[in-house]
Amino acid sequence: MSNFNRTFRATSLALACGIFGTAALAAGTLSKGDRTFIEKAAGGGMFEVKVSQMATEKAADPAVKSFAEMLVKDHTAANEKLKQIAQQKSVQLPTAMPKKQQHELDKLSKKSGADFDRSYIAEVGLSDHHQDIEMFEKESKKGQDADVTAFATNTLPTLQKHLQAAEQLKGSARATGVGISPMQGTTTKNLTKS
Hints:
mainly alpha
């Protein structure tokens, strides 16, 4: 075998090992922060879909039902994108909601009518979305993996849209003292907490 052939084979083998080794290494070297973000975002996304599906059935105000439908659609799409990233990065997503969110879902399921609407907007629309936005902003600025950071950055405007819509629902209820649905003109009790 000539020196050229030996050198060519050795170089090809080294290059192949380097390429495949780097790809395998990249899949397994996700930072702890990025991995935690994926897991928390997946649990939160699962909660948003389930609680909003419930809200499409239980909400008294058509505007709250419309808000819930938007959340189901948007969070389902985000969950699918996150699932693809998790598979690419070899991250095992949770199969059940975190206990805190399961408790919140159980608590909301016992409410009905305007009481449900108030609690859903306050807890899911406002509180949870404030927390989500904070988490996604942190990941978009400090995340180490480009795909995970891009997911956080690209999802932020949707979360901000959800928060703004929840604030409008709460604001329209507070302005009139009675929750008036801007979409249907129906009335419900005040959406703010008593």
